[in-house]
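Why should sequence recovery work at all? Because a backbone constrains its sequence more than one might expect. Tight turns favour small or flexible residues, buried strands favour hydrophobic ones, and helices have their own preferences. The token representation captures these environments compactly. In the example below, the structure is given first.
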């Protein structure tokens, strides 16, 4: 089993990471810690309100095999969150894999995780001019880029980003990950049944509600 964490900060994007997190948890039974610098309520850019399970002060970054950073339409609060930056900085020189999508590679850049690494991002390019810690010479104009222990992606390629992370950890996701065409399936193939054992378990669970 691998250990994953998702960092939370204001206006984080669920849409950009749920392809990855749902496959990890539903397909492969992995537990994911949602952590933040403060034990307060965070609101996603979609409007969902969520409390972190742990704070960065309660864990070590090396407790995790992979730290996932969702994008955010407003990266400044996270970028100037000293506790969050210190947590990321503690990952420099470790084997932790950092998976950052959309604007969140900015956080890796400021923390020093991206130093000397090729990367992509979905932030506006003027940010690369404003922030001196962004190594513009290492920016690659591709949907997903992997370099060493860092995987970065642009938000619109959330599926490809998820695939890159899952393959990095050796999960069997087939050759056509989430690319099936509904028109290619028959009626029988789109009709689902439990096994007898699963059906029996469901009936037992249902009886507890009556």
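From this structural description, the recovered sequence reads:
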């Amino acid at each position: 089993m691998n250990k994953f964490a998702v960092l939370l900060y204001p206006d984080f994007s669920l849409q950009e990471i749920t392809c990855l997190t749902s496959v990890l948890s539903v397909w492969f039974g992995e537990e994911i810690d949602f952590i933040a610098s403060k034990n307060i309520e965070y609101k996603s850019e979609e409007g969902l309100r969520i409390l972190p399970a742990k704070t960065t002060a309660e864990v070590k970054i090396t407790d995790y095999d992979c730290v996932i950073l969702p994008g955010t339409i407003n990266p400044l609060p996270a970028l100037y969150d000293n506790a969050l930056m210190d947590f990321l900085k503690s990952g420099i020189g470790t084997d932790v894999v950092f998976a950052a999508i959309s604007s969140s590679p900015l956080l890796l850049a400021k923390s020093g995780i991206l130093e000397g690494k090729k990367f992509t991002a979905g932030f506006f390019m003027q940010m690369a001019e404003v922030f001196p810690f962004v190594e513009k010479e290492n920016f690659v104009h591709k949907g997903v880029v992997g370099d060493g222990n860092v995987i970065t992606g642009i938000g619109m390629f959330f599926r490809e980003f998820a695939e890159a992370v899952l393959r990095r950890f050796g999960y069997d996701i087939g050759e056509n990950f989430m690319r099936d065409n509904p028109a290619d399936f028959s009626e029988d193939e789109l009709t689902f049944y439990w096994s007898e054992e699963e059906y029996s378990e469901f009936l037992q669970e249902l009886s507890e509600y009556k």
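A few observations help interpret the result. The helical segments are 18-27, 76-79, 82-89, 105-111, 126-130, 158-168, 196-207.
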